Every structure is written in structure tokens, then in C-alpha cells.
Amino acid sequence: THWLVRRVSRLLIEDPRALARLLKLGFLLKRLGLSRLGRPVLRALGLGPLAAMDEHSDEAPLRLLDDELPALRAAGEGDAWGYFAPCGPRYLLPRVGRATWRALTELKGRGRFLENSCCGLLAHNYGRLADAREFARRNIVRYEELKEKFGSFRVVADCSSCAAFMKSYEQLFTADPDWRPRAKAFAEAVSDVLEFIPPDKAGEPASGASAGPVTYHDSCRACHGQGIRRQPREVLRKLAGKSYRELPESDWCCGGAGAFAFTQPELSARVLDRKLRNIASVQAATVVVGAASCLAQIGAGLRKCYPSARAVHYSVFLDEASNK
Asked: Burial of 59 by CB count in 10 Å (0-12 exposed, 13-18 middle, 19+ buried)?
């Protein structure tokens, strides 16, 4: 495992606030235009993927999602759902987390923030199973505490990769008779935001038509990992109306796949090129996605090759439509 992955994993377990401070420093340097000067240094230190990530992203938030929580909670909390904040919306894309909170509150009633840890997917993907289990245990315990206090609720995540991984928590504890049933109960309570809001609760018909021609990209962990295909399409067809257009090869990978875009840039670029050509073929102005890595990958590709279109997270699209 690369030492950077090990360090990030340990920070997420031991001191997530320190990680947040480091990210804010990096985002400040990016806003000042200084991060690009550091890319050659990163590559010389063997941190080429980190340099590629900086080049790939146009996001540089100085207020992360945890900083926004007091304002989001000011209107009050309830028991309709529990928001699990994945690391993407929490640390890199706080606008997505804000949109999820607002959309869920508007369309499903008041919920509460889980105060969760990382889901453990990053650690799991790099073979750090002990860390992945530690993250899982923390989230399971937190869920059990809230369930004991407030009763049953759905755990809603707004990144399909994280939602799919949490639905598989039981597999982390197949040899542990104490934790396996607890992991199974948690997994059964998890919902991807893509499946959580039914069309009849999703807002007014054609309220998202101003977004222009709208299409939908199936992230691999949504369609292949969770079998989620129908629900988001029904919602988008309602909100976009006649502006909705089905994307050819919509369930083909975009080449993001977490860190794959940065560790295998040439292959990732070829996969992305096919996705962009399909997006252009339907003349889309808005591409709706449900996973953080897809949002970053397709967004970067559109900015470079098809700037008249934008990639937006499903929650952002819902939030925009419900506030017309």
C-alpha cells in the first residue's frame, strides 16, 4: 500500500480534523494559483497521482461540510432519515452534501446527521482490511446508538460507491459471529440517495427543464453494485420532462473509479473519451451522476472537451429543481 493511502486512512481514523485542516491549506494554495507550482515537486516525490488530482479538479472549498452543519441544522432535525456523509461530499464537494441535506429535508422531511466516520472503502480498496473493519465498527455503533434513541431509520448516503460498500459490510465480518449480525442489520438500513426519493415526492413535473437537455450516467457501483437503474430515471424524467434524453452506453464506466483515473491516466482517458462522445451524441447540457469519482471525472472531461455541458450530482439537480 502506498504510504499516502496509509497516512490518509490513519488520519481518518485518528484525527479527521487534522485531515480537514490539511485539505483547507491545499485548497487555499489552489485558489492562490500556487498548487500548480508544486505539481513537479509532487511528481518528483513519487506523488504523481496527487499532482494529477490537483490538475483534474476545479474544486477548492475553504468551508467543508462539517463547517456548514450548524447552519443546516438551524431549521431543526428529525427522525425521517439519517444522512451518512461520504468523504467526497464531506471533504472535497461540500456543495453536494449541502444539496443532499436540503433536498432530503424538502422532499422527505427532517432528518439528522449521523456524525459518521469514513465508510472504509478507501482502506478496503488498498487491502487495509483492519482499517476497513475499524471504520465499519464505528459506523455500526453510531447507527445502533441512534436507533436505540430514536427508533429505526434509513441511512442515506450520496455517493454510490460508499453506499454499495456499506451494503456489503457483512462480508467484512464473515468470521466474526459477534459483529456479523450487527453489520448485516446496518447494511440492510442503507439507502443510496438515488433510490431513496420516489418520483411522487421528487417535486413538480418539468421543474428541472431549465437545465436544458438532461441525461443520466449510471455509476458502476449504482447499477452493477446495487442494481439501481429505474429509480433515478423515473425521477429525472419527471423533473426534466421532454428534455430528458437517454445516454447510450449509460452503464459503461467513465474511467473515474476512485483513484484509477490518477493511477492509470492513459487508460482512464480512453474510457472517458467514449463516455464524452456518447454525451455529445445526445447534445446534453446537463449530465446527472450519483458518485463523487464520476462527478470529478466527467466534469473534468466536459470542461476540457465539451464546455457547453456540465456534470451535476443527482442531489444538486433535485435541490435546484425543488427551489425553482
From this structure: middle
